[in-house]
Each structure stands twice: as structure tokens, then as C-alpha cells.
Amino acid sequence: MNRRFATVALVGRAHDPRVTDSLLALASHLRAAGREVLCEAGPLATLVGELAAAVPAADLAGRADLVVAVGGDGTMLYAAQLVRGGGPPLLGINRGRLGFLTDISPPEMLARLDEVLAGQYQEDARALITARLEREGQAPLTCDALNDVVVQKHATGRMIEFDTWIDGVYVNTHGGDGLVVATSTGSTAYALSCGGPIIHPQLDALVMAPISPHTLSDRPIVVGRDSAIEIRLLERSETRAEVTFDGNLLGELDHGDRLLLGAAERGITLLHPHGHDFFRILRSKLHWGRSARNPDEPC
Questions:
Q1: Do residue 72 and residue 193 come from a single domain?
Q2: Looking at the structure, do residues 185 and 64 belong to the same domain, yes or no?
Q3: β 221-224/36-40 pair status
């Protein structure tokens, strides 16, 4: 489906010179193309000046037809929080390091942006995971995440112990540093460093990957995206735990609390230039396909 992108919002870190150079070039290019340009009020708006209208972050998704995130995957995760729940699509310009989500390089960004504005792009629907942290006598804390929700030990060197259930069925009692529950998108992030598998983005699945488990038999498992996951800290555990989503703190997990995880009602849409290839990105980022005799051979 081709969309009309009359208003474009730019997102990026204003303190990074590599990012700001690209943001200024994009803003100028978009204005020359007759598009309205928005950016988050604050340091970025000061930097861009008259090239873009300053808008509160909470209002960007409601006013923009397209959000362009310039930076690394962290910037894309931030932008995903802005547009979650059916907001405008996201386009990523890679000025970070790894960049599984941001697949357009700076030298080609203006040409690729023009292609997108002309309707030449691929849409990529990504599912989110929702978390609900319940504590008796308090209002629940909730969030949606594109990559993952993580339970991890907090301010202690001792391991945490916790139980997991899936669809109301007891699964395991874990001991270690915590647990990563990742979407297929997040399978190439923290979960990958915990030994989890890489899952194609279009597969409706969740990865449950233990963090530094106390026993080697505690292995990552893959479940359906619609699975209802519950996590509880054991009473005998004397350590504190916290819950984060896409690197942001949701709250502390204490004895008697319940962390409930499942599929979010609505996801987000990424845009890619024509010819986008997930496996090419894997080869590039993970250095697959290179000869042992010639490690500099291109993927």
C-alpha cells in the first residue's frame, strides 16, 4: 500500500555530530521537496532551527505521516515507543554500530528517502510484546516492547530465583541473573547474547532466554507469540529483581508480584527500500559467508 507522506518527523540524538549532520541534511532535503518537517522539542529543535517545527514527543506520531529515525537500533527503539499502537511507519537511517533495524546508510539516505516518498518501498509489520507488572494494592505497571522484556537481578551479586508458567502451565524454576523474553525482532539483540536463536522477523514467536543460568540444563525455548507467560520471584530468593523493556525500567519485581507477558494488540510498521534482504543484513552484521582464508572477503 502506497502512502502519502506530506509530514515527516525526524528523530535522533542531538549530541551526536554524526547524527546531527544527517538530520540537518534530511530536514533541508525534505523542505526542498515541499514536505512539512517535525522534530522533538528540545535540543534537536534548537539544532534544526527553522527547518522543522518543534513538537512535543508525545504529539509526533499523531501529526506525522512518516517518522525517520537517525542513529542506531536504540534510536529505533525510542521511535517505536512513539508510534506504537497504530502510529505512522518508521524508516531507519543507520548512524550507529550494529544496526539490525536501521538498514539505510548515510551516503544513500537522500536517494532512498526520495524513493520512499515516491511510494517505492517495502512494508514490514513487526509485532510487539506487552508486559503487565502486578502488585497487590497498587495499580499495575504496563508497557509494550519491540525487542524484549527482561527480568534481571538488581544491585546485588547474588543470583535470583524465579518460576515461569506458559498458558497457566508450570514450566521451570530458574536460578541465575534473569530472563530475556524477546520478540522475533529482539532475537538478534540481548537474547542472542544469551544463546538464543535468531528468528525471522515474520515468524510469530517469542524467545525465553535465561541470563547466565545456574545450571546448563536451563536452555532458551521458543513459544508462540500468543502464549501467556507469567514470571514470579521465589519467596526464598533474598535478592532484588527489576523489569526492563527495550532497555527502559518498568519497575521492581518483588515477592508476591506477578509479571504477565503476551502479544500486544497492535504492532508497528517499518519501511525498507526495495530489495531489502534480512539475510544480507545478518551476513553483514554477523560476518557470515566469509572465507576462513580470506576474512576480508565481502559478504
A1: no
A2: no
A3: unpaired
Residue range of the domain that includes 82: 7-126+267-286
What pLDDT digit, counting tens, does each position of 45-83 carry?
A: 998 999 999 999 999 999 999 999 999 889 999 999 999
Q: Using alpha carbons, select from 142, 157, 174, 179 the residue that is nearest to residue 262.
A: 142
Q: How far apart are CA 258 and CA 22, in angstroms?
A: 44
| 73 included as an active-site residue | yes
Question: Which residue among the candidates 73, 148, 246, 257 is catalytic per the annotation?
Answer: 73
Hey, is 56 helix, strand or coil?
A: coil
Q: Give the CATH number of the domain where residue 66 resides.
A: 3.40.50.10330
Tens-place pLDDT, residues 30-53: 999 999 999 999 999 998 999 999
For the chain, counts of helices (H) and of strands (E): 7, 19
CATH number at residue 244: 2.60.200.30
Q: Please give the tally of structural domains in the chain.
A: 2
Residue reference for cell 536501521: 102
Q: For the chain, what percentages of helix, strand and coil (3-state, to nearest 5) are there?
A: 25, 35, 40
